[in-house]
Amino acid sequence: MPALPEYKTRILLENHGVPLIPAVFYDVMPDILPEPAVFLKAQIPGATSRAGRGLVRRASTKEEISNGLKELLAEKNCQGVLAAEAADIKKEYYAACLLDFGNEENLPGGVLLFSPEGGTGIEGRTGSLLKIHFSLLNPPSVQDIGNELPDVPHAYELADFLQKMISTFIGYKLTVLETNPIALLAGGSHVAVDCRAEFEKHAVSKKNAYLFKVPESSVNDSTPLEKMVEAINAADPAGTGFFRASREKTPEGTITVATNLCGGGGKMLWEMATGGRDDIFSLNESDTSGGLSGFKSYRILRVIMSQPEAQVLILTGSGMAFQNQFHLASAVWKALRESPTPLPSLLRFGGTDQDKAMNLMNTVSENLPVKVKTFRPEIFPNAMVEHLEEIATDHRIKQEFIPEAGELAFEVKTPPARFVYHPEKNPEGKEPAFIKECPTGFLQWKKDRITPNPDAKCIGCLVCETLSLLEGNGELTIELGLPGEVL
Ligand code: SF4
Fold first, then answer.
1. pLDDT surpasses 50 at 478
2. Are 368 and 375 within 8 A, CB to CB?
3. Which of 42, 164, 175, 486 could form a disulfide with 18 if both were Cys (CB 3.0 to 4.6 A apart)?
4. CATH number of 22-85
């Protein structure tokens, strides 16, 4: 049975709302190292007992991180290394979902295995595991699972976690989904620290093939825009950035929609909203999720907006995204300002900083070249589609964006960007307020200039540029090049 490495399994879990320990995936040696302490985990499909084989190690200093990354990246069949935050864990659990072929007591379906002890050595404790059999068609509720759990702290929060695991298992038709350990953190929340999945090749749907890396065909029929997205992913591999143009001819008289769907939840809601309608045509499939940077969101949005037939853009996730929604809104705002062919947009934000995201779009919408409507996560896409007709356009706006000249302050390699400082907008040479808002401390004010902090990393969130334009004088702009021409 093919197995997915942890970094891929994390995307499946994230798409179903399972909370994960923060981690960054590196497939090459990065220029800027993550902050210690981290656990470095080699990503080798099918590898088990990684800790015993030295494929997982704790790194407490930059030197240990650097050496560990180099060594693990050189391991045979290693697809990359996950650097996961070393969290303060109060308790560990084990859980797995498996296919159950049934017996005289249970119909075929799934089985959830749970142990109130996680970590290594679970194989030797299999007899003590709690088993909850479930129907694949009618999976158990949080309440059902909570009632079965032994006496553990925060049992119903844990049941919610397990229910989302079951939803991932069923949603992707997996044969095995294991989380070991699930960590209970100091605040009472649970996160998946390590995970893996097994699947049956034939059960992978075409639209999810990119997640499982199952070749769809021996012929590479990628469109120029799809190739552009491949190049964007190669330069900025963290998180999912997926785009596939429809191969169908656009039916006459339909509203043609360019979609930016965030995660499996976003896709599912969009399909539910439009599945029975022949007056709406999705020009593309898409998925931006798994903790991608705002820089990557911007670049994928530019590709999505460049589809010549599109009349409107729709952006939605599940309503509880992992990606910070203010970072996403900053990417949307930038794409609408800079795209030569911006699209009228219906935008649904749901997740961390959703109110800040809504406020940003509402503040800037008057000065945008196209109409924009924002929606809270309580409004589902089946209500959003009722606004398509009023906002869609037959006459695409064309605009020319010329980046303002300034001083190149510095460049960042991953995620790639050029930071440009405009000293004439800061005649007194004071430290601009947005410098302190950089969430990683990467930006510093030294000798009257913006400089990068060599001990921190830029996560490509766009907060600095957004605040510079919104609350400052536009002292900083970020140039995000695209691989090749976009319409
Ligand atoms: S410099 Fe800081 S605020 Fe600006 S994009 Fe990078 S991480 Fe975000």
1. yes
2. no
3. 164
4. 3.30.1490
pLDDT at 70: 94
* Identity of residue 402: I
**Domain map of the chain by residue range?**
22-85, 89-203, 217-391, 407-479
* Protein residue whose Cα sits closest to atom 6 of ligand 1: 458
- pLDDT given for residue 215 in this prediction: 47
pTM of the model: 0.63
438 lines ligand 1 (CB under 6 A): yes
Tokens of 61: 């200093």
Ligand 1 in reach of 335 Cβ (< 6 A) = no
Kindly report the protein residue whose alpha carbon is nearest to atom 4 of ligand 1: 464
Q: Whose CA is nearest to atom 2 of ligand 1?
A: 438
In the structure encoding, which two tokens stand for residue 247, read together? 């191969």
Domain 217-391 sits in CATH at 3.40.50.261
Tokens describing residue 260: 């930016």
Mutate to test the pocket of ligand 1, among 443, 455, 480 (most ligand atoms within 8 A of CB): 443
The answer to whether domain 22-85 and domain 217-391 are alike in fold is: no
Strand 417-421: give its sheet, edge to edge. Answer: 407-412, 417-421, 476-479
pLDDT over threshold 60, residue 220: no
Would you call 49 helix, strand, or coil by DSSP?
Answer: coil
- For residue range 234-282, what is the model confidence (pLDDT) as tens digits? 888 888 888 989 988 999 999 999 999 988 778 888 988 887 888 999 9
